[in-house]
Amino acid sequence: MGTSDVVEAAAREHGPALVGYAYLLTGDLATAQDVVQDAFVRAFARFTGRRDPEHVAAYLRQCVLNGVRDGYRRRGTFLAARPRLAAQADPPPDTLASEHVDLQRALGALSPRERTCVILRYYDDRSVRDVAEALRLSEGAVKRYLADARAKLGDRLAESPDDVVPVRLTRGGLAEGRAR
Amino acid sequence: MSERFVAELRDMSRSAERVHRSDATWVSELAARVRRARRRREVALAGVAAALVVGVVVSSAAVQRGAPPVPPAATSAPPGAQVTSVTGHSVCTLGPVNVTKVDGVPRQVMSFTCDLTLSDPRVSGTEAVTVDARFYGPSASARWTTQSAVLTTEGGVWRGTGSGAMDLDGNLPALPGDSIQMGVLHYVGEGAFEGLQLTYNFAGRMDGDNRGYDIVGWIEPVG
C-alpha cells in the first residue's frame, strides 16, 4: 500500500470525525476542513510507515488542536472576526446551519480562546490543567476564559469546582483572578 | 445542564461530519497536498544534507590542496590544520523530558541517547546528550544548548558542548509539515583521544521518539 493509499484510507476513516471536532473548535465548516487537511499534511508529509496505526487518530486530533491553537495565535484577528461575521450574515441554506442556530449563535458570542477552552473542558472532558497544557496557557487563564464563557452561555453550562478561579484577598483587594 | 450542552455539541459535530462526507473532492485534494508536501520535504532535506556535505568537502579539499586560507565559517573545518573529515549518521532515542517555564518561556530539558555510525571508528559509539531547549516563539520551535554531551567509543571518551535549533511543528516554509532539528556539537577527547577535538554538524527530521540525523564533521588536534 503506497503512501497515497494510506493517506486516502486515513482521510476516509478519520477525516469526518476530525472535521466535526474542528467545526466545534472553529465554528466554520470550510475552516474546519482546512484545519484537518493541514493536520493530515503535517502528519503524513513525513510519514514513514513506522507510526502505530492505533495512534494515528490521536495524533491527528492533536495536530488539529495545534492547528487551531496556532492559527488563533498567528491569524487571531481574522479568525476572531469569523464567528461574528458568520453571525451577522444570513444563515446559509444548508442543513448544518439551520439545525443548530441557537447553539451556533451562543458559541459565536465566545472569543476563539473561550470557545476552545469550552470545547476542551466540556466536550473533551479534560481537566483544567490538561486544557492549560494543550493551549500553552496558565491554569488561571483557562479558568478565566471558562468563567467568561459561562457568563456568555448562561444556563447552558454549569460551573464545576475545578473551574473556579482562586481568589486571594489582600489589603489592596483581589490579588489573583476575579470573584465569580 | 452541562450534559445537555455536550449532547448539543455532539449533535452539531455529527451534522458537520455529515455535510463533510458529501464533499466529494476533499479527500483527493488532501492526497494531492500530501504528495506535494512530501516532494518539497525530500528536496529540502536533500538540500540541507548536500549543503553540509559540500561545506566539509570544500574545507577538506582546500586543506589538501594547500589552497590559500579562507576565513572559516563556524561550522566548517579550519584550513591549515591536520583535519580528518568524518561523515555518517546517528539514530537517537528521546528519554525523559522535564517541562518547566523560565521567565514565562517554556523550557524542556530533553535527554537523547544516540548511536553514532561515522566513517572514523574513533568517533563511532554511543552518545548521551542532554539539551536545554527554550520555546521562545508561538509555535513549537526552540533553540537549545547542551547541559551535557558525552560520546563513548571503544577507544575512549569525548566530552563536549553544543547548540542548535528544532522545529517540532513543521512550520518552516521550506519544510512544510516536517519537524526538523539541526545543530553543532564540539567534543574534546579524553584518555587515548587526549589532544584531539571533534566538531560535527547534524540535521534531520524528528519523527516520534526515534530520530535519525545526517552528520558531517571533522577531527583535528586541539589548539
Structure report:
- The complex is a heterodimer of chains A (180) and B (223).
- With 180 residues, chain A is mainly alpha-helical.
- Chain A has two domains: 1-109, no CATH class; 112-180, Orthogonal Bundle (Arc Repressor Mutant, subunit A).
- In chain A, 68% of the residues lie in helices and 2% in strands.
- Chain A is built from nine helices and two strands; from the N terminus they run αααααααααββ.
- Chain A has a two-stranded antiparallel ribbon.
- The longest helix of chain A has 24 residues, at 3-26.
- Chain A starts with a helix and ends in a 6-residue tail after the last strand.
- By secondary structure, chain B is an alpha+beta fold.
- Chain B has one domain (35-221): Beta Barrel (AOC barrel-like).
- Helix content of chain B is 27%, strand content 46%.
- Chain B has helices at residues 2-21, 26-65, and strands at 84-102, 105-118, 125-134, 141-153, 157-167, 180-190, 196-207, 210-221.
- Chain B has an eight-stranded antiparallel β-barrel with strand order 1-2-3-4-5-6-7-8.
- Chain B is elongated.
- The model of chain B is unreliable at 55-74 (pLDDT under 50).
- The chains are: A mainly alpha (180), B alpha+beta (223).
- At the A-B interface, α1, α2, α3, α5 and α7 of A face α1 and α2 of B.
